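Deliverable D5.2: sample structural annotation.
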Amino acid sequence: MLVAARFRRMIQETAGGLPRRFWWLWVATLVNRLGAFVVTFLALYLTSSRGYSPAYAGLVASLFGLGSAASSIVAGVLTDRIGRRPTLLAAQLGTALFTVVLGFTDGRVAIAVVAFLVGFCNNATRPAISAIIADIVPAADRVRAYSLNFWAINLGFGLSSAVAGLIATHGYLMLFLLDAVSTVLCAVVIFLRIPETKPDTPAGARADEPTVGLVTVFRDSRFMAVVGLTLLLALVLQQGATTLAVDMDRQGITSSEYGLVIGLNGLLIVLLQIPLTRWVESRSRSAMLAAASLFIGWGFGMTALAGSSAWFYAFTVAVWTVGEILYTPTLMGLIAELSPTHARGRYQGVYGLSWSLASFLGPAVGGVLLERAGGGALWGACGVVGTVAAVGYVTLGGRTGTAVAARSGEVVAVAAPRTEAVPAPAAEPASEAAKAPAGA
């Protein structure tokens, strides 16, 4: 009884007090990820079902990543210009359309082009979703909100990966169709339940001109430093989906053992994300990011010592997964607070570019290093990169705190369909106040 009461209290503290619109967005995200079959099985589909070479499958995967990178910037600008809701709906419907088209497409060039378009539309949802969360969730609760959103993504992805293998036995086309259906359902939920949250145009600004241009984002040295550090850690995390499998195969680890080891990543996120959320919120942001960087970097770094032990590989996955759990929601909260209110889409788009570039560059860089220098050099490099990122976050801690404090006086008037006047939310607290738990 005592354990059950503590668990209920933990759930209440983690999930309570967030706006209803956030929970509809959370449901839409979960539904979408529950049907995210194609990305996971695209390479296997191209090689086993369509008979293409592994090299061609890798090229298609790279083009998918390239489309994601391009959409980060485009979708970020559109999120600020035309609004969060239309950008998100267009991206979802485009993803559903091109996913179905990809299932029926044949020919090397045609498949490559459609895969690029699927990647473009699929990733275009990220800036809009992140901006909506920043718009509707108070600063003090954003780490918690981003953590719950991250949890929904991993829960849905884990379940979909398990089910997709069974569905694929009846034909890969069914994966494409069900993926498209889940994406359309997500768009329906957003259309019915998520109003536009784009802030009103500031007084004195032209309605047809953004307050902050894209060039301004790239000139924001503090923000771009955070993006650069994110790119470093994203390159490390990409090795978990690419070179880790190759290295384990070289050591004689079977494919079934690899599946169990890498599956531990999603399982731990589902089990630990909620318990760790409240603990992360009350800690120093720079300390959490630095600790997460070390967990991620040296979690992969210790892979060099695994040899042929699947248990040791599982241990390393557990270490860098804890780092991932600490890192993602904390970083998203920082990105939201570093973003000026009327340029959140652009800032989120540029931030997302780091992950897209990592998905494009990470497999190639890791593969070349593994092939030419060996596993010891690759995993050691991951540890060094994690250490560099940790030092960078500690160094930037005071500077980013100053930047957030400078923007804490912004007043946001959310433009949403309503029949009565809604007052603007209170000014966002400075960085230290933002880290306090809700109700503190």
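Annotation notes: The mean pLDDT is 80. Residues 20-434 form a domain with the Growth Hormone; Chain: A; fold (CATH 1.20.1250.20).
The annotation will be released with the project's public dataset once the embargo ends.
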